[in-house]
């Protein structure tokens, strides 16, 4: 479909405005992490690395960063296993209620975070009698991280079809051999992209974490929120926020590149 010059200019201008609105606050956060003024006067009159040095030596920030990395890694591993199994089962099997099961798997990422967090908190503390800890945070994060892996696996299997797997089994390979030599290599880039997205989602999650973490387990987003309004900690919070933006953007960028490259390779192969 060919667009008129005026419509193209309008769409371009609208896109630029949206991008400016979205990314200007992030740029301000990064610049303020170098602002020498504690009151963050704008524009910055002088830049400094002093706040970065303080952040690097902040025990609370380092402990929170390690907790976030630990939770995100564990949630990603669980998501890769369960999301892959669910995607394969619902794509290859036909049974009554299949669409309902698919909806139940996808629903956690569509629900408001406060609803998911409240429900999980009640389940852990009231129904199961489990104390809030790293374990409860990981389980809570895995409930919505599974969706990214599940959707990636479903999309890749739908795009590939089942001809190669059927050919493998016709030649005498069993289900596990077929999965190891045929299915898994075809899913590898989709799983990596889903894992990176899961890591990014878990790493910067705060709403669900607030309801499922104990006072002893602070992730980096929670640490930022709790120190945001403390005057002495404000410059360090800006540094940590800038680091969080960069760490969250990297896996999402890599996942997008992997998904795009895989799609181009499959299109070229056809």
Question: How does this model look, in words?
Answer:
There is one protein chain. The chain is mostly helical and 270 residues long. It is globular, with a radius of gyration of 23 Å. It has a single domain, classed as MetI-like fold (Orthogonal Bundle). The C terminus is likely disordered.
Fill in the keyword field for this structure:
globular; disordered C terminus; mainly alpha; 270 residues; MetI-like fold; 11 helices
Concise summary:
The protein is mostly helical. It has 11 helices and no strands.
User: Which CATH architecture?
Assistant: Orthogonal Bundle
CATH class equals Mainly Alpha
Please mark out the parts with pLDDT under 50 across 5 or more consecutive residues, or reply none: 265-270
Task: Give the termini separation.
Answer: 24 Å
Taking the sheet with the most strands, its summary is:
none
- Backbone structural class: mainly alpha
Task: Please bin the fraction of helical residues.
Answer: over 70%
Report the C-alpha radius of gyration, rounded: 23 Å
Count of DSSP H/I helices: 11
Give the overall shape. Answer: globular
CATH topology: MetI-like fold
Strand content: under 5%
Would you tell me the overall average pLDDT?
Answer: 79
What is the CATH superfamily label?
Answer: MetI-like
